[in-house]
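Project outcomes to date are best conveyed with an example. Our students and postdoctoral researchers have been running inverse folding experiments weekly, and each run begins with a structure described purely in tokens. The record below, which covers 249 residues, was selected by the lab manager from last quarter's runs and is presented without edits.
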């Protein structure tokens, strides 16, 4: 594999499992130095860190709750002090709290919007302050095809993910003159803990609705994120790249 990210410093939120973990691993394989955050998965984060750092230090996990402004500021200050640069931010951390609208609590709505959308705002603002002086940067938001198609029982999640698409477009315009490129990757269904929660019957129906006939691996999402972070994507900004096996066609 080519080392397209050699010499670059990346920050990935929610790197302790699932798609975030795959992005961390892919970035390391492509030569980046990666800061990743974990929330509840301290043991898992430590395990990934030990494994990847065996042949030289290339990843550092930091504890953080993406909904906390002070955590975003603290992590970015740490990166600035230690590495003096930040080239790539991936806003990956995200949750679901599914419920039909009439039964959805205000707490469920707020929790999903706070984590998936407000979190991206807080971490982007902190990261951009490090990118601006260097006149260079990449921001990649992990959205979802649900933000485009909608989904029953996911009004909160769909609203947050659609919000990320708007945030991506607005920031792409705002930061283009500083050579900071902002894009969104919108996966369909990916094999992670998030989708493993679905009942088998629902998983079967899902596979049938996907033209490619299968869910994605986390690595297939990470590959697109790595491309957008790489010098090869130097003329792409404000876009949402759908990676869904044809689900939304
Ligand atoms: P997982 O549930 O497997 O992992 C979620 C990650 O986010 C974990 O690393 C978790 O950390 C972290 N996280 C959750 N809440 C917080 C928080 N408050 N502060 C900091 N970190 C937090 O999710 P996936 O890998 O499946 O999803 C990753 C992203 O991809 C999400 O944005 C999701 O919406 C999106 N996505 C997923 C799809 C799928 O099919 N799986 C489809 C489309 C989009 P920890 O474990 O340490 O608590």
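After processing, the design step wrote out the following sequence:
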């Amino acid at each position: 594999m080519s080392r397209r990210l050699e010499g670059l410093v990346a920050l990935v939120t929610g790197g302790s499992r699932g798609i975030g973990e795959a992005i961390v691993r892919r970035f390391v394989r492509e030569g980046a130095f990666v800061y990743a955050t974990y929330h509840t998965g301290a043991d898992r984060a430590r395990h990934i860190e030990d494994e990847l750092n065996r042949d030289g230090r290339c990843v550092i996990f930091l504890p953080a709750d993406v909904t906390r402004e002070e955590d975003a500021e603290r992590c970015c200050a740490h990166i600035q002090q230690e590495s003096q640069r930040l080239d790539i931010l991936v806003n990956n951390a995200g949750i679901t709290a599914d419920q039909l609208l009439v039964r959805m609590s205000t707490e469920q709505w707020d929790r999903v919007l706070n984590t998936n959308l407000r979190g991206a705002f807080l971490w982007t603002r902190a990261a951009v302050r490090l990118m601006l002086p260097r006149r260079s940067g990449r921001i990649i938001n992990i959205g979802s095809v649900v933000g485009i198609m909608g989904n029953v029982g996911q009004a909160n999640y769909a609203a947050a993910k659609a919000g990320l698409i708007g945030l991506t477009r607005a920031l792409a315009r705002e930061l283009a003159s500083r050579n900071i490129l902002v894009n969104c990757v919108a996966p369909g269904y990916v094999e992670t803990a998030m989708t493993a929660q679905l009942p088998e019957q629902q998983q079967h129906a899902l596979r049938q609705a996907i033209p490619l006939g299968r869910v994605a691996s986390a690595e297939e999402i990470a590959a697109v994120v790595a491309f957008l972070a790489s010098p090869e994507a130097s003329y792409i900004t404000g876009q949402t790249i759908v990676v869904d096996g044809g689900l939304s066609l």
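The longest strand covers residues 180-187. Residues 13-14, 16-20, 37-41, 64-67, 92-95, 115, 142, 144, 187, 189-190, 192-195 surround NDP (CB under 6 Å). The training component of this project remains on track.
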